[in-house]
Design a protein that fits this description.
Blueprint lengths: L3 E5 L11 E8 L2 H14 L3 E4 L5 E3 L4 E8 L4 E6 L3 E7 L4 H10 L24 E2 L2 E2 L4 E7 L5 E5 L11 H4 L6 E10 L9 H14 L8 H19 L22 E2 L1 H13 L7 E3 L5 E3 L1 H6 L8 E2 L3 E3 L7 E3 L4 H19 L8 E3 L1
Parallel strand pairs: 2-5, 3-5, 4-19
Antiparallel strand pairs: 1-2, 6-7, 7-12, 8-9, 10-11, 10-12, 13-15, 14-15, 16-17, 17-18
Helix pairs in contact: 4-5
């Protein structure tokens, strides 16, 4: 096990922000995790888990402990039948590479999660989701190690998945280390076509594919087309990592969409109506609540795409949920986020929740 000293952490995050790690260990096997945890205990050092760095804000002061960067590889088929396939996937596998692999097998369940940056190990932590899909709907279990190095398998139910949250993000498992995730993907279920912008383009693609009925791999071809459609939509919003696009020096969507009960919705509608907004966008959830658009709230509180804030940070020119690092600091980024939260609350009495995690 190689322990490195004084390693800059900014290159390991999509924000390209943050100080140094006093110690840094690359984790490539489950045994590496056990060895690293033993090292931390013996040296009485705190540790911090780092995956793909796409949902992480590292403070400018860095981390005075051990950063464990998870790079555990591997996609292993555990079971396959006429209706589904079960895979165990290493936590260090790049998420979008796994999505691409699954789509090429003609399997549904995560096709709308194409283009999301980060690693497989991080996917259950915040229950990643996009365009009507959430990863919780395909996860069977999570294989992890607790703080003592004990191997534990956590069921889907025990994760207590909610909108962009889980026990790994804010509950009893938040200091545990994900080593692999087991997914079940479908051979039979239709692709997820829920969002209007997806549905419109999908219908065009579907009509074109029907002209090639002799294609033996029609399902796979359609799924690949849908994947490309999703990635295209994300690129327009600078939500796909691209070194040539400064707008992608971000964490994607910085705030989650607020979910409100009916009583809270009525208060919001009254507030919005007084400001002249009679039909703000909202989405009906299966549990009876309604989801507001964080992007709409930000824009209608007076903050626009392309706005620049003090300290070398700003808003993406393509999507106002993309808070970006231009040439700034983590402190400036967090100050901008707080000012946006304050503006939205003062305007609509709605508190926006930050999606990325601040470390340490």
């Amino acid at each position: 096990m190689l322990v490195q000293n004084d390693i800059p952490l900014a290159p390991y995050t999509t924000f390209r922000l943050g100080g140094e790690a006093k110690y840094f260990i690359s984790i490539k096997t489950k045994q590496d995790v056990k060895d690293a945890l033993l090292y931390c205990r013996n040296q009485k050092l705190p540790y911090m888990i780092l995956g793909g760095g796409s949902n992480t804000i590292i403070r400018d002061s860095g981390f005075d402990g051990v950063v464990l960067q998870i790079q555990i590889p591997g996609i292993r088929c555990l079971e396959a039948n006429e209706s589904s396939v079960i895979y165990e996937v290493g936590a260090g596998v790049i998420w979008d590479q796994f999505v691409e692999y699954v789509v090429k097998q003609g399997l549904t369940g995560i096709e709308c999660l194409s283009g999301i940056p980060g690693s497989v190990g991080a996917s259950p932590i915040q229950n990643i989701g996009a365009y009507g899909q959430e990863v919780k709907d395909t996860i069977i279990s999570i294989q992890c190690l607790d703080e003592a190095g004990n191997e534990i398998t956590i069921s889907n139910e025990d994760c207590n998945f909610t909108y962009r949250n889980s026990e790994f993000k804010s509950g009893m498992f938040r200091n545990w280390i994900v080593c692999s995730v087991t997914f079940q993907l479908s051979k039979q279920k239709e692709p997820c076509i829920l969002y209007p912008e997806v549905k419109k383009q999908w219908e065009i693609l579907l009509s074109e594919s029907k002209e090639h009925k002799s294609n033996e791999n029609l399902r796979t071809t359609q799924l690949e087309s849908l994947r490309n459609l999703i990635i295209g939509l994300r690129k327009k919003k600078s939500m796909v990592l691209d070194e040539n696009d400064p707008n992608t020096r971000s964490a994607g969507s910085f705030f989650t969409n607020p979910i409100l009960a009916d009583s809270e919705i009525q208060k919001f509608l009254i507030k919005a109506s007084k400001l002249g907004y009679t039909d703000p966008p909202m989405y009906h959830e299966s549990n009876g609540t309604k989801k507001l658009s964080a992007a709409w709230l930000i824009e209608h509180s007076g903050i626009k795409k392309g706005d620049i804030f003090p300290g070398g940070v700003g808003i993406s020119t393509n999507h106002c949920l993309g808070l970006i690092n231009i040439n700034g600091t983590a402190n400036a980024l967090l100050a901008m986020a707080e000012s946006i939260q304050k503006r939205v609350f003062e305007t609509f009495s709605i508190h926006l929740e930050r999606e990325p995690v601040v470390r340490p």
